[in-house]
Amino acid sequence: MTTNKHPSGGRPTTFEEHPEISDNLPEIRKHNDTASSLINHYSAFHATIQANSARGGVEGQKVKEDSPVITRPKVHPPRLEEIPREIYIESVLGDETPAVSAPRYRGRRIAVVVPAYNEELLIGETLYTIPDFVEKIYVVDDCSDDRTLPIIQEYAKKDNRIVPIHHEENRGVGASIITGYKTAIADDMDIATVMAGDNQMDPAFLPKLLDPIIDGKCDYTMGNRLISPVYRKGMSKWRFFGNSVLTFLTKMASGYWQMMDPQNGFTAISARALERISLGDIYPQYGYCNDLLVKLNVWGFRVINVPHPARYGREKSGIRYSTYIFKVSWLLLKDFLWRLKMKYVVLSFHPLVFYYALGFVITCLGILGGLYSLYYKFVLGNAIFVPLVMSILVFGLGAQFWLFAMLFDMQQEKNTNGWY
Hints:
Elements lengths: L2 E2 L8 E2 L4 H5 L1 H42 L18 H9 L16 E7 L6 H6 L7 E6 L6 H11 L3 E5 L6 H14 L4 E4 L11 H9 L5 E5 L12 H18 L12 E4 H6 L11 H11 L4 E5 L13 H26 L5 H27 L6 H33 L3
Parallel strand pairs: 3-4, 3-6, 4-5, 7-9
Antiparallel strand pairs: 1-2, 6-8, 7-8
Helix pairs in contact: 8-11, 10-11, 12-13
């Protein structure tokens, strides 16, 4: 009787128990014969392969024994600290979390602070032209009365670099920039630049402001429109005169004697400078840039002027030079005295403070003597020659003290930070 093993390993199964199988017995035997022939064929093929492999192994061993021994220098894998950070992270993460590169300029994270007050006509053009290498754009709306804020918010939906910031009350352009600076520090930016919301500043010159800071030549760069008549084309004579007066006063107050065009708001500053100076003490109105220069000088940061042409269009300046010059002059006088105290008395010492003090006192005495000479002549009716000559001599002596003090100040700045 023909039996078949049970698939599960139980008792044998007979064909009598399954007549449907016995009916197809010839066909099953045919298939079994075919399977047996295939098994025999592949068994012979496998034996041939083993024989060839054995012969190949023997020949390979013989060649290996006959071949000369070649020694290679051992290559040690690099230590972890020798592997560049980007390559190590990429090798660890692999394809699971592909890195998304943020915008960079020469490997630095760049932020642009855009102060805006009633700039609905030009704020859109300003934001549209900011270069792609800028990572963050902090647009500070200083409680505008027009549609400036809705326009900023609309652009922020299209460009995720734009961060709208709104002041609940008008604080001034200086306060708006300080708000942007503080946000840049919080976001760990490397350099923060300023571009006004009136589209006066050509973004094509932005790399020229960034390069000196990245190269380590300075910590603060500022535009210069006054260096050439071609660059100040379009600037009114009254505006040029006001800028020139404020430039001289800011030179004396700040100690940056080679600096020009301090009213230019197109600037860039390093993160370390922002972290060092007290941002809360910066003047909040127009004149913040002059005040900032004084504080940068006290803490020893270098400044470089970057020439660029002025660009005027549909914007309207909010500066009234008839009152602005006097307001900023008073600010610069206070800054000048603070700089002398901090830089040459508190943080270090230099006798030029005595020259400034004596120059001020003696010059004032000379001026008072001149006024008395006029009184002596035209009121008392006496000869004016002697008192007038004495007054001129005293005034000249005081002016000499002033000039020597300024010379020492220039020399100190040259020796400390170099000239740019």
